[in-house]
Design brief:
Blueprint: H1 14-29, E1 35-39, E2 53-58, H2 61-73, E3 77-80, E4 88-92, E5 98-103, H3 108-122, H4 124-140, H5 145-160
Parallel strand pairs: 2-5
Antiparallel strand pairs: 1-2, 3-4, 4-5
Length: 169
């Protein structure tokens, strides 16, 4: 059965939920973790969002396979490298619900997510327009999360413009 696409008003508890999940991920994945970033709409104060915390975890490529195993053992559902972009996806539906993406430093998708988050945080009009789009798409695709996500792509690409590929040592 498909999961409904539900967009809610901003919840001030989302940053705390991110911090809680990030702490558990640091314990689970250990010293290999380079960064843990709160991405997605729940990372933007005031923005309507699906009540799912999106998290990018960067770690060296050689540690991703063992991190994937640890995620599965901890109860996360492995969703694979769905878009062949070097982002290994995991989901957890128990509260607080989250999606965790493992990637190596310098990953282009990760940098685009951070760029979009920062644009939304810094531009109230852009954030408001994105909220309107998200609500409209949630009504258009109430049971189709993939189509909902795909329909946002043009807005996101226009908002971030060309982003340089940044490689961290």
């Amino acid at each position: 059965m498909p999961t409904p696409v539900v967009v809610l008003d901003y919840d001030m508890a989302w940053p705390d939920r991110f911090a809680q999940i990030a702490s558990s991920l640091r314990l689970l994945l250990g010293g290999a973790v380079c960064e843990i970033d709160h991405v997605g709409s729940t990372a933007v104060p005031g923005l309507a969002a699906k009540p799912i915390i999106d998290i990018d975890v960067t770690l060296p490529l050689e540690d991703i396979a063992s991190a994937c195993e640890r995620m599965v053992c901890a109860g996360y559902e492995a969703r694979g490298n769905r878009y062949d972009d070097g982002m290994w996806a995991f989901s957890r539906k128990v509260m607080p619900a989250c999606r965790v993406y493992l990637c190596q430093p310098g990953n282009e998708t990760h940098h685009k997510r951070l760029a979009f988050r920062e644009r939304l945080r810094g531009d109230d009009a852009l954030s408001a327009a994105y909220a309107v789009l998200k609500r409209q798409l949630s009504r258009q695709f109430p049971l189709d999360g993939d189509s909902y996500t795909a329909a946002k792509r043009g807005f996101i690409e226009a908002a971030i413009g060309p982003t340089p590929f940044i490689c961290h040592p």
